[in-house]
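User: For my dataset I need records formatted as: sequence, then structure tokens, nothing else. Please produce one.
Assistant:
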Amino acid sequence: MLSPVSCDNFYKTDRLLVRKFILITYFFISFFIQVSGQNLIAYYSGNARQISAYPVSKLSEIIYSFCQLRGNRLMVGNHADSLTIQTLVGMKKRNTSLKILLCLGGWGGCKTCSEVFSTESGRTEFIESVVELINYFHTDGIDLDWEFPSMEAYPGHPFSKEDKQHLSQLIKDLRNRLGPSREISIVCAGFSPYLEGSLDLPSIAPYLSRINLMTYDLIGSHTHFSGHHSALYSTAWQVGSADRAIRYLDSLKIPRNKIAIGVALYGRLYQLSENHDHGLNQPAQFEKFVTDKQIRVQYTESAGYKTFWDPEAQAAYKYNDRNKKFISYDEKRSVVAKVNYVKEKGLDGIFFWELRLDNPHGGLVDVMAKQINP
């Protein structure tokens, strides 16, 4: 008979072997099993009623946005949010390959992440709450959208240089707890300095199902020139692009079949102070976001907005010569170019923010779906 101490050591060893088995199984599945084609992933922050208008049958995955941290636990906001998640899960009956993930965070949605994930007890309680929600709603995993660890990002949100290590440990522990069959994805900024400094990508990549590389907002609210916020390629005057971000991940030896790049279903509108070269690469001040639907209806040629195409960046933009307004956005040509890039590079797929910003019929989601599965 084992002594109490020996028995305790035995069970500790047994648990360690189980964890190793789970990880080995997960790595085996990740390495040898390839999903045919690429994935089309939607973030969704709407309600239960709105989702029925959109082409869900064409999607691989819907990421419900957002859940919140309350204390150390992941929580669904209210009854209406619960109903939305249940509605999304119910759609798996018609689209059996569809996966539904719960998302933590978003811009401004991770105020206490640095504190909660800094301790083992905080991480453990969070992980158990994730398991409870996944089991309760019958979802397929968790998406972590912390914007952004280790660096100052959202005004007033605490951060620490140790965030990177704490998040890495959280992801490892999540994988151990969830096992190989559940999805764990993470949002990664596609722009500097966050791309290079916010996450320990080589450490966490083996435990992740997917890295959603945010290859939009490459120019932002504090950018004082009119550039491409969702450029596919870098140009002589704009460094930030999806291709540059992929090349950086290549340098870290991150498997390409774990990376998805992003499409923005909204544009960024800037007010220019000068009037040259159809508005591109000019001194400018960010004014506001405009949705894809607004761009189609309001920012038209009859309203003075001419559409231009930058063949170097593979990006579209609009410019109004009369009022010096400039809009950087994704449209059909840029979306087709991105999907072709995903196929050429062997990436996991393409994701977009967010489904409600698209036209339910004949929108960019339809373009992406047709291009991915012609």
